[in-house]
Design goal:
The radius of gyration is 23 Å and the shape is globular. It is 81% helix and 0% strand. The two termini are 29 Å apart. It folds into two domains: 3-40, no CATH class; 59-259, MetI-like fold (Orthogonal Bundle), CATH 1.10.3720.10. It is built from eleven helices and no strands. It has 262 residues and is mainly α.
């Protein structure tokens, strides 16, 4: 008796998945049509089948997992530094006028600056290994985290702060026990914005400076005109960003559940 009731839900999920993925399906269809009809040479755009066939040998040959692990280590380590520093500075700016006076000009100057332009400087100072990429990711992501946290903490009602003080909350715990939980939605929104920025920074720095990782591996393949390999790495980058963004959406639902609407 319950089987007919399940059928509509199953088909509804399938339909939702197709609607969600239709841009990707459309791109793949156009891509395959263009290559099969010979409008583009395989050197510039390999067929979908050629890319798929290249994926499995690269996977079992550790040409995907190992570079991706290096890139994710750099991106996540730099992002963690940015979250810690950015959240602390943003809360301090919202709480203390002296911190706002000290950091606001710096944030206003550095936030819109093209951070990729600093790649040669970071490589010159810190070399081509992990440290330069991690610090570049942190430098790129810290300012969006400061802005997001500051705006979230600034929106907290003064009555909430006064109530906490009246109940005996020490001044040094106002930020951690009151302001941080109240501004958590903005902090997570900032984290969701900076996560793809961290990936982009890590991949781009690897493309420019080398030193391992997906970006470096892709540029190495491009030098030898291994176009299917290049497209495999591009797809790996795209899928990594998509999966991490979906994970961040789940994380927001888990920790900011009170803002979810039916």
């Amino acid at each position: 008796m319950r089987e007919p009731a399940r059928q509509p839900r199953v088909w509804r999920r399938v339909l939702d998945a197709v609607i969600y993925a239709y841009p990707l399906i459309l791109v793949i269809a156009v891509w395959e049509a263009v290559t099969e009809l010979g409008y583009v040479r395989p050197l510039f755009l390999p067929s979908v089948g050629a890319v798929v066939r290249q994926f499995w040998p690269m996977l079992i040959g550790h040409q995907i997992v190992e570079p991706l692990a290096v890139s994710l280590f750099r991106a996540f380590t730099g992002l963690a530094l940015a979250v810690v520093l950015g959240t602390g500075i943003g809360l301090a700016m919202a709480r203390f006028a002296s911190a706002r006076w000290a950091f606001d000009p710096l944030v206003s100057l550095a936030f819109p600056a093209p951070k990729i332009a600093f790649v040669p400087i970071f490589v010159l100072w810190f070399g081509i290994d992990h440290l330069s990429k991690i610090l570049l990711v942190a430098f790129t992501c810290v300012f969006p985290m400061i802005v997001a946290t500051y705006h979230g903490a600034s929106a907290i009602s003064g009555i909430v702060i006064w109530s906490a003080q009246a109940m005996g909350t020490p001044e040094h715990k106002i930020m951690t026990r009151v302001m941080l939980p109240a501004s958590l939605p903005h902090v997570i929104n900032g984290l969701r914005v900076t996560l793809p920025v961290a990936l982009i920074s890590a991949f781009t720095a690897e493309m420019v400076a080398g030193g391992g990782g997906v970006g470096s591996a892709m540029m190495y393949a491009q030098r030898f005109f291994q176009t299917p390999t290049v497209f495999v790495y591009i797809i790996v980058m795209l899928l990594t960003g998509l999966l991490l963004d979906l994970g961040m959406g789940r994380l927001r639902q888990r920790f900011v559940y009170w803002e979810q609407h039916d």
